[in-house]
Amino acid sequence: MEKADLVGLFCMVTLNLAALLGNSGVMVAIARAPHMKKYVFVCHLCAVDLLCAILLMPLGIVSSSPFFSTVAFTVLECQVYIFLNVFLICASILTVTAISIERYYYIVHPMRYEVKMTLNLALGVMVFIWVKSILLALVTLLGWPAYGNQSSIAAAHCSLHWSHSRLRKVFAILFSVLCFLVPSVVIFAVYCNVYKVARTAAKRRSDSINSQTTIITTTRSLPQRLSPERVFGGGKAAITLVVIVGQFLICWLPYFSFHLHMSITTPLQSPGDIEEAVTWLAYSSFAVNPFFYGLLNRQIREELIKLRKCCARRPVELRNLLRVSEGALMFVTNSMLPCNHGNVMRQRLA
């Protein structure tokens, strides 16, 4: 059992570090390049997920791992943890939804996208995301049971089911509908429409190439690597649909299903192991989002490569600068000394 606990702790720490490095790298790559401002929602997603990696995931490690079983949260600390949990999860999921809608307009309605997608609109959407997330998280501070003389709660019991005892069912339904069900429907509908458009465009290109090929030659077929069905078969759009929607459902469906089920059908006490598993499956989204929404994008990936090369050159440039500075300092020192003292100094330095 202790070995399994150690493996679990290692996985949680690894996810936390991956979330810190991945989100930081994508944010820096977008912020340092002026032409990357169109990825403002991706940058916002990385900022929210970075906050999760800094604030939420370390608290989750302390609350979940048996190695910290002696740690006890006070009632206030537990309230803060639950507030951050709801607030940051909601903000992250709503930002993913905004990215999906933005991609839909960029691909399906490019002219409308160029006209309406302004910085003010993007800022308005981000403000809406933060306000909605904060308002929903504030509900978790209502209806806490009276603990009497009990001043602390065991870390393993610091979960959503400790709060709002009279409002648990209402909150669970609101939380699941507003932060999961509605975003899931929007994301699935958006990428289905994107797939249909990509499939239609692929079919038109395929028919066009087939017509041109028939006119040019009737004796040779296209090489296998240039086959229209392989190049323009809409496979990339289908893979994108499966990957994006699948990753979202894998990370979040168990989490919301568990909490909705626990709040509606079972007593207050929840099975700790299952809750920890679904919680960290959900937290893994903070580590994989930079990959799906950042590193898979060619422009962001190129900026990250430039950033890495720039960081690799800096130590060499710093060493060269130190050598030049040292040489200049020696020259100035020798020039300020008398001739005989300068000769003695040069002999000592030699």
Number of strands: 2
Shape: globular
Name the helix and strand elements from N-terminus to C-terminus, one letter apiece.
Answer: HHEHHHEHHHHHH
Going by CATH, the architecture would be: Up-down Bundle
User: How much of the sequence is in beta strands?
Assistant: under 5%
CATH fold call: Rhopdopsin 7-helix transmembrane proteins
Our Rg estimate from Cα atoms comes to 28 Å
Describe the largest sheet.
2 strands, antiparallel
Low-confidence stretches: 219-233, 336-350
In short:
This protein is 78% helix and 2% strand. By secondary structure, it is mainly α.
Characterise the protein shown here.
- The protein has 350 residues and is mainly α.
- It has one domain: Rhopdopsin 7-helix transmembrane proteins.
- The protein contains 11 helices and 2 strands, in the order ααβαααβαααααα.
- It is globular.
Main attributes?
350 residues, mainly alpha, Rhopdopsin 7-helix transmembrane proteins, two-stranded antiparallel sheet, 11 helices, 2 strands, cell membrane, membrane, GPCR_Rhodpsn, GPCR_Rhodpsn_7TM, G-protein coupled receptor
